[in-house]
Amino acid sequence: MTAKIIDGKAFAAGLRERIAEHVARLKSEHGITPGLAVIIVGHDPASQVYVNNKARQTKEVGMNSFKYELPEDVSEDEVLALIEELNNRDDVNGILCQLPVPKHIDENKIINALSPAKDVDCFSPENVGKVAIGLPGPVPCTPLGSLMLLRDELGDLSGKNAVVIGRSNLVGKPMGALLLRDSATVTIAHSRTQDLPAICAAADIIVAAVGRPEMVKGDWIKPGATVIDVGINRVNAPEKGEGKTKLVGDVEYSEAAKVAGAITPVPGGVGPMTIACLLANTVTTACLANGLTPPS
Ligand code: NDP
């Protein structure tokens, strides 16, 4: 058996088209153009690439993009003052501060300063709580993208045995909450979990969010299961030449693809969904700020 490869890149492109249609309707029917503000502190090249991608895709779906590039030595107070200004602007519906920030700035203070109504990364305790009890609001982007891929692949997730490997606040915990909301039977595994292969063997759905290259082995997977590989790990690739590297997920892809029913590749699976879901969250917060029902 060879697993179906879940094409996250194509799904994300389709999602961005649907977001663009929604943005066009918000403009024509309500005179609202959602806006996303991105703050970047310092000159980390990887962060620059992420921020530029976010800004480009924001504009491509017809939303306003506001980019604030602050110098490495900007004071914490200046960043907090900018966030306060953006919190109070009607044309800004989403604010994110690209992490990590330089060491002299307290990440928690930044997260706490963001208005929960504009916290499109869904870091605030208020928004995390809303996800847990099923109230409308932003949803953590990577778990939301993973859930969309699962629903698209499997339809109703009700009653499925789902194992989430990893319990980070960013991925594992919200992923578990979202699967539970969809009535899956959820197990969240972590570094203290005993006999992970046996737990995986009973899973209809595996979401791997560990950060350990190819840790989940092909022979752990139940035949026909759906595997979502969130992991992004850079490893040496001597087969590509001296000093070369490549990206791999948390799942041993070549073996898992022989057993699973469907699987996300790395790259090209969950990764492209994350920014698309950030845009979806900005539409959600724009709708909620204007008393409109967000798209489901
Ligand atoms: P964290 O390091 O915050 O969390 C890793 C989790 O894995 C922890 O809960 C840890 O358990 C658990 N873990 C570690 N070792 C084992 C083990 N041997 N067996 C079972 N569980 C284990 O990582 P993140 O959640 O932030 O990210 C996970 C991966 O997803 C990374 O590769 C990251 O790069 C990727 N990622 C990808 C995104 C995308 O857009 N596709 C976005 C965000 C992340 P414990 O809590 O006990 O320590």
TrEMBL record:
Signal peptide: none
Catalytic activity reported: (6R)-5,10-methylene-5,6,7,8-tetrahydrofolate + NADP(+) = (6R)-5,10-methenyltetrahydrofolate + NADPH; (6R)-5,10-methenyltetrahydrofolate + H2O = (6R)-10-formyltetrahydrofolate + H(+)
Transmembrane feature ranges: none
Tetrahydrofolate dehydrogenase/cyclohydrolase catalytic domain mapped to chain residues: 6-121
EC number from the UniProt entry: 1.5.1.5, 3.5.4.9
Span of domain Tetrahydrofolate dehydrogenase/cyclohydrolase NAD(P)-binding: 140-287
Keyword annotations of the record: Amino-acid biosynthesis, Histidine biosynthesis, Hydrolase, Methionine biosynthesis, Multifunctional enzyme, NADP, One-carbon metabolism, Oxidoreductase, Purine biosynthesis
InterPro entries linked to this entry: Aminoacid_DH-like_N_sf, NAD(P)-bd_dom_sf, THF_DH/CycHdrlase, THF_DH/CycHdrlase_cat_dom, THF_DH/CycHdrlase_CS, THF_DH/CycHdrlase_NAD-bd_dom
PROSITE patterns the UniProt entry points to: THF_DHG_CYH_2 (PS00767)
Origin superkingdom: Bacteria
The family this protein is said to belong to: Belongs to the tetrahydrofolate dehydrogenase/cyclohydrolase family.
Name of this chain's protein: Bifunctional protein FolD
